[in-house]
Design brief:
Layout lengths: L5 H14 L4 H15 L5 H13 L4 H40 L6 H29 L3 H16 L5 H16 L23 H17 L6 H13 L7 H8 L6 H13 L7 H9 L4 H30 L3 H30 L3 H16 L4 H18 L1
Helix pairs in contact: 1-4, 2-4, 2-5, 3-4, 3-14, 4-12, 4-13, 5-14, 5-15, 5-16, 6-7, 6-14, 7-14, 8-9, 8-13, 9-10, 9-13, 11-12, 12-13, 15-16
Length: 393
């Protein structure tokens, strides 16, 4: 296929990186609205299949999804620029926190962040609505989505999400095989830059995963990169799981308060929660904070991107098979359940604290879904609303 210029990919993702508050579920909602509904860079079915793949792989799910969208639009250069555009705002903010955290005032920013978190609730609700209409048309698919949401809300643990998606695939392969062919992702017609390259990223991932722990003893400079690479290789279930993994890998290197400050700040900034790595890398390298931040960011994001590049071509080839396509439909239904569960926890729970907040959510959904107000206008409106709420308290 002929790829487009990668630079528009960078600028579109940079804009999203500046306003995408609310965590992975909200990011996926922003991506869906921007690249499926508005710009039509990829179809609903292709988006859903890439989303399912990113949910199966370890790593930062929303960043992997953005990477995959950039790959589809403009090849490997587009994938890299999509990651840079989406991540740079949050990475820079977290790096600045490491340098000047003691002098930043959180008061005025608290209202701004609160308003944008409310917008994230609206965006996720809209994504659940749209994706349920596309992927839960059958009664069985709707049942899979509701069961997935119930399990995710009732059970805790990083493996629950993975098991729910596997269960959705199994139920889909058994119960959704007679679904209309029009719902099957038409990924057999989609190619990547070179399917022959799929083995190289997987070999590189395996080599780094196995050899880095052995080499860091002989080369102490690798210790920081290895700690973040191992954490990025084992994160299933979202960015919140990365904190205990990093605490274990960096045990004794930083005070507990520093971890918690970075963790709280990563939830308040837009973009991926893995931006925590920029803060920790800078804190762990006081003599060269910029270098430490770059090493940590590269370490934590690289595993997920290597796995995505390695499995992407296989995924697109398998998706045209009847049984696999039915399993994908089951996974898509489970992903709707995943988003529904995320709409409540952590998006709704962390953002809504009063009846006035609920009123703003209803108004925002009206403006977005019924009146089709552009998202940048909504960002400005909710930012102002959040500042006003804090001012009158």
């Amino acid at each position: 296929m002929s790829f487009h210029s990668p630079w528009p990919v960078f600028w579109r993702f940079l804009v999203l990186g500046c306003v995408s508050f609310g965590g992975p579920a909200a990011h996926m909602g922003y991506f869906h609205r921007e690249f499926v509904e508005r710009r039509q860079w990829l179809s609903e079915q292709h988006f859903a299949s890439l989303l399912a793949l990113c949910q199966f792989l370890p790593g930062p799910g929303s960043s992997q999804l953005g990477f995959a969208i950039g790959l589809h639009r403009a090849g490997l250069a587009g994938a890299v620029l999509a990651f840079l555009g989406f991540s740079l705002p949050s990475l820079l903010l977290m790096f600045l926190l490491a340098l000047y955290g003691g002098s930043l005032s959180a008061g005025p920013l608290a209202g701004l962040v609160h308003g944008l978190k409310l917008l994230a609730v609206v965006v996720v609700a809209d994504a659940v609505w749209q994706m349920s209409r596309s992927h839960c048309r059958q009664r069985t698919a709707g049942a899979i989505a509701l069961l997935a949401a119930a399990l995710l809300l009732a059970l805790e643990g990083p493996w629950v999400q993975y098991l729910v998606l596997l269960g959705g695939a199994g139920l889909g392969s058994l119960a959704l095989r007679a679904a209309p062919s029009a719902e099957t992702p038409s990924l057999a017609t989609i190619t990547v830059a070179s399917s022959r390259l799929h083995a190289l990223p997987l070999l590189l991932f395996a080599a780094l995963f196995l050899l880095l722990p052995l080499l860091e003893g002989a080369y102490p400079g690798l210790a920081l990169f290895n700690a973040f690479f191992q954490a990025g290789s084992l994160v299933f279930g979202g960015g919140h799981v990365v904190l205990p993994l990093l605490q274990h890998g960096l045990a004794g290197s930083l005070p507990q308060d520093s971890f918690l400050l970075g963790y709280a700040a990563a939830q308040a900034v837009p973009g991926p929660m893995f931006s925590l790595s920029a803060y920790l890398g800078a804190e762990l390298s006081p003599g060269a904070p910029a270098l430490g931040a770059v090493v940590a960011v590269a370490g934590i994001f690289l595993p997920g991107f290597l796995l995505l590049l390695g499995f992407h071509s296989h995924w697109t080839q398998l998706a045209s098979r009847v049984r696999v396509a039915a399993a994908i439909r089951g996974v898509n239904a489970a992903v709707v359940g995943l988003l529904l569960a995320a709409l409540y926890q952590p998006v709704f729970v962390s953002a809504v604290s009063s009846a006035q907040d609920v009123a703003l959510l209803l108004l925002g959904f009206l403006l977005l879904r019924v009146l089709h107000l552009p998202v940048p206008w909504l960002v400005a409106a909710f930012a102002v609303a959040g500042l006003l709420q804090v001012a009158v308290r």
